[in-house]
């Protein structure tokens, strides 16, 4: 009811299943005030992900502040909330208070509290960065595996050539004025068969292309005169 006096009723409230939120009094309050009350499944904190993310920052800081007497952690909630609400947010580029009210919060500076909060936020940022990098690594490995399967499939389906076969090779470089030229150069004679469908070639006759070159089976096809 304290926040209700200033901000009015929220449209919905998402909570865990603590006794304070499962009580009949709280249920009646939400019903009377036309507030939707959602309770997350026990053991599934991602159901209230935004709160869980801020808890990852708040709980370690409260633990450090109340190290002398852990039962007094609640005494630090209000000043910590004030510092957090007035702290620049990396994602929004504003403090939560500025986004909500539109002005900068006037605040008594508590350097120790702010340092603890920033330290915890930097650690969380580093953890998020590490998670992103691991996710990116998995995505890269997935694409590499798909590319390998595609390449292996092409290699299995590639024609088998022998020494002395006449072939044409695909033009792989297109400079100025070459886009309308034939896509294949040749004929070329295979002079050496190499592993992994690679071939050394020599030019036969007078046509575009290098005198000696090499190519792979997927960039070649048998030469057909005419």
TrEMBL record:
<dbReference type="InterPro" id="IPR050951">
    <property type="entry name" value="Retrovirus_Pol_polyprotein"/>
</dbReference>
<dbReference type="GO" id="GO:0003676">
    <property type="term" value="F:nucleic acid binding"/>
</dbReference>
<keyword id="KW-0175">Coiled coil</keyword>
<dbReference type="GO" id="GO:0015074">
    <property type="term" value="P:DNA integration"/>
</dbReference>
<dbReference type="InterPro" id="IPR036397">
    <property type="entry name" value="RNaseH_sf"/>
</dbReference>
<feature type="domain" description="Integrase catalytic">
    <location>
        <begin position="1"/>
        <end position="104"/>
    </location>
</feature>
<protein>
    <recommendedName>
        <fullName>Integrase catalytic domain-containing protein</fullName>
    </recommendedName>
</protein>
<dbReference type="InterPro" id="IPR012337">
    <property type="entry name" value="RNaseH-like_sf"/>
</dbReference>
<feature type="coiled-coil region">
    <location>
        <begin position="115"/>
        <end position="153"/>
    </location>
</feature>
<dbReference type="InterPro" id="IPR001584">
    <property type="entry name" value="Integrase_cat-core"/>
</dbReference>
């Amino acid at each position: 009811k304290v926040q209700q006096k200033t901000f009015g009723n929220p449209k919905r409230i998402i909570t865990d299943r603590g006794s304070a939120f499962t009580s009949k009094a709280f249920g009646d309050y939400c019903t009377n005030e036309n507030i939707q009350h959602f309770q997350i499944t026990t053991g599934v904190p991602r159901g209230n992900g935004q709160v869980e993310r801020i808890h990852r920052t708040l709980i370690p800081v409260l633990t450090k502040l109340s190290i002398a007497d852990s039962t007094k952690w609640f005494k630090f909630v209000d000043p910590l909330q004030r510092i957090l609400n007035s702290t620049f947010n990396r994602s929004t580029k504003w403090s939560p208070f500025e986004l909500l009210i539109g002005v900068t919060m006037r605040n008594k500076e508590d350097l120790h509290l702010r340092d603890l909060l920033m330290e915890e936020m930097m650690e969380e940022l580093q953890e998020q960065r590490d998670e992103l990098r691991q996710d990116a690594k998995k995505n890269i490995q997935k694409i590499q595996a798909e590319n390998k399967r595609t390449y292996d499939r092409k290699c299995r389906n590639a024609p088998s050539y022998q020494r002395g076969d006449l072939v044409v090779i695909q033009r792989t470089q297109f400079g100025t004025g070459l886009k309308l030229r034939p896509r294949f150069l040749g004929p070329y004679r295979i002079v050496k068969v190499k592993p992994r469908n690679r071939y050394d070639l020599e030019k036969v006759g007078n046509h575009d292309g290098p005198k000696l070159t090499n190519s792979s089976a997927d960039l070649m096809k048998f030469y057909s005169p005419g």
